[in-house]
Amino acid sequence: MIAFTDIVGMDLAKQALMLLAVDPSLGGVVIPSAVGSGKSTLARAFSGILPEGTPFVELPLNVTEDRLIGGVDLEATLASGVRVVQHGVLSKAHGGVLYVDSLSLLDSSAVSHIMDAMSRGEVLVEREGLSEVHPANFMLVGTYDPTDGEVRMGLLDRIGIIVPFTAQNDFRARKKIVSVVLGTRDAEDTQDELNMLKGLIQAAREQLPHVSITSDQVQALIQTALSLGVEGNRADIFTVRAALASAALAQRSDVEEEDMKLAIKIVLIPRATRMPEREADEMPPQEEPPPQEEPEAEDEEAPADTPDSDAESDEEQKDTPDMIEELMMDAIETELPDNILNISLASKKKSKSGSRGEALNNRRGRFVRAQPGEMRSGKVALIPTLISAAPWQETRRRDKKMAGRPKTALIISKDDVKIKRFRDKSGTLFIFMVDASGSMALNRMRQAKGAVASLLQNAYVHRDQVSLISFRGKQAQVLLPPSQSVDRAKRELDVLPTGGGTPLASALYLGWETAKQARTKGISQIMFVLITDGRGNIGLQSAFDPDAVKPSKEDLEKEIEALSGSICADGIAAIVVDTQMNYLSRGEAPKLAQKLGGRYFYLPNAKAEQIVEAALSF
Prior knowledge:
- This protein is of the alpha/beta class.
- The protein has four domains: 4-172, P-loop containing nucleotide triphosphate hydrolases (Rossmann fold), CATH 3.40.50.300; 206-271, Magnesium chelatase subunit I, C-Terminal domain (Helicase, Ruva Protein, domain 3, Orthogonal Bundle), CATH 1.10.8; 313-353 and 426-616, Rossmann fold; 360-425, no CATH class.
- It is 41% helix and 16% strand.
- The protein contains 24 helices and 18 strands.
- The strands form five sheets. Strands 15-14-13-16-17-18 form a six-stranded mixed sheet, with helices on both faces.
- Helix 1 crosses helix 11 (234-249) and helix 19 packs antiparallel against helix 20 (486-494).
- The longest helix is centred in the first third of the chain and has 21 residues, at 187-207.
- The radius of gyration is 29 Å and the shape is globular.
């Protein structure tokens, strides 16, 4: 196992873990990073700098509820005839560290139990006739790949430190990593460094009660949290504790500016929902809409097929990739009906149990019944299993020639085993595809951003998952993997640059791939929300080969039509919100909506009654 001091780079993550070792009341450290960055190696090496005897328990993703919180040991109970209680993983981590790799993939039920244990400092075991309380005061260290999804906000709220970092790409650093992995470092030097680090942490723990922070410093940290839009009071407390721990680690008795900066970096900034307001002289010069944008009333009166309109459209599409610089535009409030997403989905889902639907499964959700099954196929329903076996005990004992012997154990056959069935609400995933190309910069990117913000709020109300895809330049990219973090989606939207070509085909392909991955994780209801003028001019091949020859207009149309047909055949709902001005439009967006088998809305005229009428006529 690689030692903590042998790990190359990741300085901020190392510092965060050391602060947690100094002050366990910080709750934990979460490290989101890409695959192969070394985050899991660092997390496991954390046990090497903790005091001797500190528990370090790793939680498997497929942990069952009885193994997580504890309960009746079925095998031991049946063998002895006396109820045997076993402690769960959470209780075993008491006084130490609970480590979870791929934290974002952890079952929602397990996440709820962890959240409850972190709030109480103990585990309540109330199941199958058992009622006990087990101590469970632990530090949580979690790592995950953001492309696998996000961690529940309720869990992150209980964890003090979130440390994003990127993989090391420096040649010398990578060379050093290879030498460490191959074991070319001296073992004695490594042990000396670990002992020194342990001594430093122990000294910091002793110093921590003597470190002071002024009221002005606390006020400054709170004001910073407010300016960043950080929600909740726990973050304020964690920020102060992180600053105190940083000062203690440096053997100081007073918190200094560098301690506050570190605390802001690892506690507040990862939770920010907005950027601090800029001064007037710092505002970007491209704030105002371009001069080509005219009042809507005049736009709608102009005919869509005039010769001048066609010429302007061709000129704009031709020059977009090379002439349009990257622009940053703020969102403006855009009126859209509150029920646009619900109505559009009505034709795609025929659930009998509510607007969002429910599904039966063997692993998560609300327990509804027990049914016959094999033990490896799900969670055993203990009481129904014992009830099923009880009437046959005498017969089975006679068959096994056990009559007259003490009745110390039950005889259970495979036919007695009952498996729990759960009912889980099947969520909806909205994949927002935002056209950020140059043609949007010339038209109404600010209104488009406002429309997405409005639709995101609708998704938040129903606790649906959202994904955000931007397409501009040569290819589309996923800005936000499927997540329930609407705030993060809004942050990504706020800093979305604009300019370049329109790789519409790349966006459709990437959205389709995202939908297929989501379905492998149990998400069945998926909707595409395309905010675009529908004027794709970059082929799909350009996303994989920058030197690819630009396809003809006919080839582009065939490419988009083929992708749209595949998406429609997969049962993915879609709506297209047209951002093109009437006097420039050739009807590209309505045609796209038709190819996708979805609904079409014109951005400034998306009236609720029109959408309802369109949905009823589907």
